[in-house]
Write a structure and sequence with these properties.
Heat Shock Protein 90, binds adenosine-5'-triphosphate, binds magnesium ion, 4 strands
Length: 117
């Protein structure tokens, strides 16, 4: 994973977690290293995403609840860019969410080979 691309993915996910948190400003970031890959999770306890919208949130310009999200600005590009960046680095990104409970976005990408300096 190119470091600044990983940084960009995390910024996109943290921006969403903040923006869609309402007043419950607790955001968890978890990282796990497995044998061959790294898994990062950004977890919030905010407004969540309705089940019917979940399949589309990685589409360009898709925003849930246009009226509400217009107030918060944004173009609906964040997750589409994050997905593209993850896939360019042989990674994957997925989302689970429950309305009024919160959202978890998981990014998984291959562990870099150890290099002898
Ligand atoms: N953590 C989250 N909690 C609740 N809804 C979310 C969350 N992340 C994304 N969404 C929903 O998915 C939509 C798409 O997210 P995305 O980041 O692509 O766009 P955006 O945040 O609206 O705008 P941009 O990221 O371009 O500023 C959002 O409009 C929002 O409705
Ligand atoms: Mg966003």
């Amino acid at each position: 994973m190119v470091p600044h691309q990983l940084e960009q993915i995390l910024l996109i996910l943290l921006d969403n977690a903040m923006k869609y948190s309402n007043e419950r400003y607790i955001i968890k970031v978890e990282g796990t290293t497995r044998e061959k890959f790294v898994e990062l999770k950004v977890i919030d306890f905010g407004i969540g995403i309705p089940e019917k919208d979940l399949p589309y949130v990685f589409d360009r310009f898709y925003r849930v609840d246009k009226a509400r999200s217009r107030l918060q600005g944004g173009t609906g590009l964040g997750l589409a860019i994050a997905k593209r960046l993850a896939e360019c680095n042989l990674g994957q990104i997925s989302i689970t969410s429950k309305e009024n409970e919160g959202t978890t976005v998981t990014v998984r990408f291959p562990l870099a080979e150890k290099r002898v300096p």
